Amino acid sequence: MKEIEILIGGPQGSGIETSMMILCRAFAKKGYGVIADREYFSNITGRHSYIHMLVSTNRIPSFLRYPVRILAGADAETIFTHFDDVAVKGVIVYDKKQLGKKLDDVPSIENATKRRIARKLAELGVYPDVASVIKYLEQERGILPLGLDFEAVLKSLLSTYKIDPRQLSRYVSGLVVSSIAVLTGLSEEFVKYGFEAQFREREYLVEQNLMILKVVKELMKDYESIFRLDDPSLNLGKFMVVTGNEVVAIAKIVAGVRYQSYYPITPASDESFLMERYEHVETDDKSLGSLVVIQTEDEIAAVTSAIGAALTGARSSTSTSGPGFDLMIEGISWAGANEVPIVITYYQRGGPSTGQPTRGSQSDLLSAVFAGHGEFARVVIASGDHEEAFYDVVEAFNIAERFQVPVIHLLDKFLANMTVTMLVPRLSKVLIDRGDLSPGGSNYKRFDLRYLISPRAFLGSPMTVMWYTGDEHDEFGHISEDPEERIAMYSKRIEKLKLVSDSIPSDKKIVVYGDEKPDYLVVGWGSIKGVALGAIEVLRSQGIKGAYANVKLLWPFPSEEFERLASRVPAEMVVAVEHSYGVNIASLVRMCTGIKISKEVVKYTGRPITLEELVEGLNRTLIKGESRVVLSRGA
Amino acid sequence: MTTYSNECVQCTHFKPHLHYPYVGLCVVKGEVREGTGRVETCSSFRIKTLNEIRDSLTRKGWVYCVPCRRTLTTLEELEEHALRGHTISDDVLIDDVVSEEALSGD
User: Fold this and answer.
1) Which positions in chain B touch A164 (Cβ < 8 Å)?
2) Residue B83: HSE in the Cβ half-sphere, 13 Å Cα cutoff
3) CB contact under 8 A, B19 and A358
4) Which residue of B has its CA nearest to A273?
5) pLDDT tens digit string along A526-575?
């Protein structure tokens, strides 16, 4: 077997996420490529969470797909919620004690979800209890049900070890991990590695979970390796198993960030938490310096303190999501007015308002591009995957400092929370460009009108005085309301956008994948990239050649490059794909180029677009001629 | 009205695990116990009454419904869940893993 799809479900905080990390590391250590998405409710514990994974022997997967071959559930809710996601002849691993549970006995399922499940079961003629669902799947879809007595396995641990019940979830995760390892033929060596990496310096947990592995192996011995994965052919070399948050944090440290501010917000906070662990940066026993990470009292303080740090010459950033960005807007306007190089890392989540805090979206593009009163230069970039995100972080700071503009780096919850195997970035590709710096000195003009890019000296430079104000200002920074000075200063700030656009190379604006002479063009940005590349590959196997335009520079919008690209295919064969209702990228394209993209495939449930549904969406728009397809797969 | 049988999870001294109530902590013995399965002899066993749980709710402001995996904060909610026969505890064992598994933010 070359690839396998797995879904693990259970109450949030019960060991599901731990299972994911152990499995990702174990599979990656063996040499497989892995991608895993974590879906969870916005309350901290208790509600349903699930991990959707794809493991591959011959590539680093960039998308997820349904149906799944293995469904492993720690509770009845997982069975009811995901029974329809299991492939024909797949496997369900479940807790035997859940068999008698009725749908109505699971109060943690939301009423609307419960009604939908009940309707589906009624249509299928299945009684709404776990036993009936499993029997239906076994008889009608050839699914193999593997019931384990979770309680008995865990109680057997009690009799052998004196376990702390406050760590019970670690053993449930061991049970889930073990069952999947047995089914896929993953040997103990790699599972042990996964346990050791997860439970570092807690050998007792490793030992106890290895005991669970032995018990589960014995219980499942008749089904060992029924989904054995082929040996890996990836030859990865040095690789990482990381989330998007982690990659961005690492990249910021590499980029030389010395000040990061944040106010906690899902799904951004984990980035800052990782940076906090490296507040003292050293290598080879040599101290490079410190990284200041501050949790501020709110997002206004986060952005304004980042601005202050940038004025002193530190590479500075802040990290947030939609509601937080909204609070930062005045600060960003100030940064634009004062030509301050800061980076705002913006992880989009479901809006509006508090919205869906733990779900993803791409609905904030226009907010990122246009938010902020007055007109000023800003740059907005987006990353298509984890590897891009690493290099884009460095590029964001280079752009910010070279052109002295706020840069908004757009990501999303999908990328933030997905764990992937990723090659270790090549540091030889990383170049730090701080732009032209000025020593300052007497009569220093911070906003010298002789130059489109102002000479930038740092606050505190010797013998240098400079002024910063929120008001319109003269070349020194003093408040000025003179109309001619206003024209000169206002124009200078905005006209440097043309310089930005001319200076950024084309391959950092739009990157095109696929056929050189495509029959159709898919337009997207951000985390659409992975699933779009998968979809055009599937359609190629059906004889339809396509290309994917990954728009990386969203502002200033690369109009010329886009027009050239769009001219390669007939207008009706261009389709925009986005995690939103309104397809913001199409609006931006229309505004900047006049080109109307009339076909769209959208999803705004907060769950990521999966491969099979995008393929269907593209078929319906490109072949069958529908103008709009709304996707909705995934619980 | 909730009916109780002679299991640790029915005892007033038992703190069930947040997600897996068949395991928990006996605060009297200070040890891990299985929550389900009859306890034949335990001198400390004392059945948890609904009145005691009501008192806890009034005093602490919350109690925990084990099957629903959520806190109850009003007497009306408590009565509603008790009527359904749900196991309700005046305290619960929070798993250490929660801090590692649950992403923070708002």
Assistant:
1) 32, 96
2) 6
3) no
4) B104
5) 999 999 999 999 999 999 999 999 999 999 999 999 999 999 999 999 99
Residues of B in contact with A354 (CB under 8 A): 106
Instruction: Supply the pLDDT for residue B104.
Output: 58
For chain B, which residues score pLDDT lower than 50?
A: 1-5
Residues near A400 by Cβ (< 8 Å), separated by ≥ 6? A341, A342, A343, A379, A406, A407
Global model pTM greater than 0.95:
no
Q: Which amino acid is at A248?
A: V
What's residue B1's pLDDT?
Answer: 44
Gyration radius of chain A over CA positions: 26
Cis peptide before A352 (omega within 30 of 0): yes
Q: How far is A53 from chain B (nearest CA, A)?
A: 17
Sheet with A68-73: list strands edge to edge: A144-148, A86-95, A68-73, A3-11, A48-56, A33-39, A419-423, A239-243
Find, in chain A, the residue whose alpha carbon is nearest to that of B106. Answer: A265
Dig out the tokens for A394 from the structure: 């460095």
For A348, list phi and psi in degrees, rounded to 5.
-75, 145
Does A15 reach chain B within 8 Å, measured CB to CB?
A: yes
Counted residue by residue, chain A has a size of 635
Within 8 A of A172 by CB-CB distance, chain B residues are 19-20
Contacts of A269 in chain B (CB under 8 A): 103-105
Closest CA to A511 of A528, A525, A527, A500: A525
Cβ distance B100 to A17 less than 8 Å, yes or no, reads yes
Contacts of B39 (CB under 8 A, 6+ apart): B6, B7, B8, B11, B45
Tens of pLDDT, residues A46-90? 789 999 999 999 999 999 999 999 999 989 999 999 999 999 999
Give pLDDT < 70 ranges for chain A.
44
CB burial of residue A486 (10 Å; 0-12, 13-18, 19+):
middle
Cβ contact A492:A484 at 8 Å: no
Please report residues of A whose CB lies closer than 8 A to that of B69.
11, 45-47, 108
Q: What b-and-e string marks burial along B34-48, b requiring 16 or more CB atoms within 10 Å of the CB?
A: bbbeebeeeeebeeb
- Does A180 reach chain B within 8 Å, measured CB to CB? no
Q: How many beta-carbon pairs below 8 A join chains A and B?
A: 118
